[in-house]
Design goal:
By secondary structure, this protein is an all-alpha fold. The chain has 3 helices and no strands. The chain has a domain of 34 residues.
Length: 61
Amino acid sequence: MSKKFTPTPHDAVFKQFLSEKEMAKNFFDIWLPDEIKALCDLNSLKVESGSFFDSEMKNYS
């Protein structure tokens, strides 16, 4: 496994963590407020590739 420098290592860890469906589901189940969870079907989560930042936010990702 090659090491790649990232200026935001915390983001890389979080992205890796959330790339696993069950881990992401558990995370959201624990940390989302009940009002938000009531609007969500956490069983419908699916991993998507790519980024959803617009070009103006790219420097912050």
